[in-house]
Design brief:
Blueprint (H helix, E strand, L loop, with lengths): L1 H11 L11 E7 L18 H8 L2 E3 L2 E2 L5 H10 L28 H6 L4 E7 L18 E5 L12 E4 L2 E4 L3 E9 L2 E8 L4 H15 L5 E6 L7 H6 L19 H26 L6 E7 L11 H4 L14 H4 L3 E4 L8 E3 L3 E2 L2 H10 L13 H4 L12 E5 L5 E6 L2 E6 L5 E6 L14 H14 L12
Parallel strand pairs: 1-10, 1-11, 2-13, 3-14, 4-5, 4-10
Antiparallel strand pairs: 2-12, 5-6, 6-7, 8-9, 11-12, 15-16, 16-17, 17-18
Helix pairs in contact: 2-7, 5-7
Amino acid sequence: MKKILVIVLLLLSASPIWAAEKPNIVFILGDDLGYADLGCYGQKQIKTPRLDQMAAEGIRFTDFYAGATVCAPSRSVLMTGQHLGHCHVRGNAGGEMLRQSLRDEDVTVAEAIRSAGYRSALIGKWGLGEVGQPGHPLSQGFDYFFGYLNQVHAHNYWPDHLYRGNDRVDLPNVVQLAPRMYGGFHSGWATKKVVYSQDLFAKEALQWVEATRAEPFFLYLALTLPHANNEAAGGVGNGSEVPDHGIYADQDWPDPDKGQAAMISYMDRDVGRLLDRLTELGLAENTLVMFSSDNGPHMESRNDPLRFDPSGPLRGMKRDLFEGGIRVPMIAWWPGTITPNQVSNHVGYFGDLMATACELAGVETPPNTDSISFLPTLLGKPDEQQEHEYLYWEFYEGDSAQAVRWGNWKAIRSPMLSGRIEVYDLSRDPGEKYNLYRRKDLVNHARELMQKAHMPHPNWTLDTK
């Protein structure tokens, strides 16, 4: 009932700002891609020519953040516009999949802009609700879904099935199941490799865009590259799953490193294919395309992070609340609207997709979000850009942690709620090497912000992490 009321209010608030021709919105999400995994962010060995071109033709953000340092909560922030102190899904649930499902009262980006006539598709990886749960994409505003519902299922790039809507789609791959069950689901690795899931996602995205070209659309293309197949890494020793090593085949590197590089270049190629299709269809100038990653880089395929330095100047990786775990690449492309070859230090995060999409669609942002539109930055109007008072994160695994950024200051506390607070000046120390814990004014302010941001949730406590 709460969700219905919110959607009705959004419909009544629809604005004619973009009514003549509402822009299409495409958000492409890489999986476990590091801040410095792309050439335009400093990568020297892995080739990403299409994403580098996308940055040259648009805006490259230097201070943009994922919603979390692991998968499900980051995607929850992206979809709901609420930071981790407020949203419902605050962690990977360790197999309790209903705990990891969005609720009926949660309002997603797809639901918020549906009232403005947008059709929405999710192609790829979801992780926020299974068949029969309220978080299923078709119950959360999406008109079309094809891909993985379960994030552990998504580890396997040659699965024996995917889902289209609520229906299982069997594939000719043959899978060796891993012994561990996660949320009632066994993952594994393929012993017979016929159909690569990334190829299916790229094909579906191209077809859906062409089929929906006459209507304003929102495409959430949630790729799994370059996430590891964790089960394959434990079972056959290499979790970097890709059809071939391509241009890296002759490199004197271990196979997991060749695979890691090839996965990123494979993703780069398919992003380019989508941009090309939008151009061929005459949609590019009316389509905002964004590209980012759900958290920092991994080493779960037995790849060596020292080879590619995926975090670049930043400290930490996936599962850290240091910058390397949460600061991510972010590129925005909109020919004819975004001035090319820009670099922006605007501080934003995944939750801002909600307000940005709503402003583009001409509807009000749903209440109770932590979202600020960055459309002024995209339109080259920095003087009109509102800034966040702070950004906030929580992490319930291991010793737990919480972090907050305000201005150029960043604070981390572990364990969360009770640990000692570290403070860093990111303007001088982006690698977070020098802890300014003696600055009691900063420490006290960080503590106040953390207390303000954290709303207790019965599903997410330190004894249920």
